[in-house]
């Protein structure tokens, strides 16, 4: 029996699943991805799926294991192999789940719409005829909806709630919204204070004018900063999905969380414009 595969449909399905998988990786890891990079990676994934049809089984197996590394590396600018490997495992798991859901729905609907019973060697057997393109599209849509809802539920698990915090510094108080994240385990090295990570806009509203050139232009001059302000500056090493980096930190006069005054350090994430619609990432230890 000859198997007929429509290359354009096969490519479109694999492109869609790869793109959706990369999107979910970005959402779950808060990686600063770009649509054009994810699209390019998904195109290469779709092309590999077509090429794999003509590869020997051993080569296909090796390629299938290595392809997630390549696609994730193209989609996200990881700086270390360990972070690339973790991102690839997450992408592989998401792709496996999407493929399982799509296959199950595809055959379940196909059994209802196009199954036929025949006698084969004296025994009844069920065979399935070719399914229409609209059914393939409907199945892909269902898988995409499942993945989107799963991503939302996963995010709610990782990020339990959003709270309002008040930061006081230099005689003024700024109210911010913060995303509570149990994965934020950053500590200021000298005082071991928990660290609240802020966007550039939020930090700009809090910092005194004399320190803005330090945080936003990486210019540190002792002549232009008073000794009192110099003591408030901190440098916080961090390791995340984008690799290792050094964040500029600031010790405010006070931080209030849920009406309770806390002691914490603020740190600037220069690449973040928002954190899931909020101004900051708050470690859950400050909720207690």
Mind explaining what this structure looks like?
The protein is an alpha+beta fold and 288 residues long. It has two domains: 7-158, no CATH class; 162-287, Beta Barrel (Cathepsin D, subunit A, domain 1), CATH 2.40.70. Helices cover 49% and strands 23% of the residues. It contains eight helices and eleven strands. The chain has helices spanning 7-29, 35-52, 57-75, 81-114, 133-158, 200-206, 209-217, 227-230; strands at residues 115-120, 123-128, 162-169, 172-181, 195-198, 233-240, 243-250, 254-257, 260-262, 265-268, 280-283. The strands form two sheets. The chain has a nine-stranded mixed beta sheet with strand order 6-7-10-5-11-4-3-8-9. The radius of gyration is 25 Å and the shape is elongated. The model is unreliable at 124-129 (pLDDT under 50).
Kindly summarize this structure in a few lines.
This protein is α+β, with helices and mostly antiparallel strands. The chain has helices spanning 7-29, 35-52, 57-75, 81-114, 133-158, 200-206, 209-217, 227-230; strands spanning 115-120, 123-128, 162-169, 172-181, 195-198, 233-240, 243-250, 254-257, 260-262, 265-268, 280-283. It has a 9-stranded mixed β-sheet. It has a two-stranded antiparallel sheet with strand order 1-2.
What count of domains describes the coordinates? 2
Strand residue content: 15-25%
Task: Summarize model confidence as the mean pLDDT.
Answer: 77
Strand line-up of the largest beta sheet: 6-7-10-5-11-4-3-8-9
Structural class: alpha+beta
- Low-confidence regions: 124-129
User: Whole-number radius of gyration?
Assistant: 25 Å
User: Main sheet, how many strands, which sense, barrel?
Assistant: 9 strands, mixed
Total beta strand runs? 11
Number of helices: 8
Distance between the termini: 66 Å
Order of helices and strands: HHHHEEHEEEHHHEEEEEE
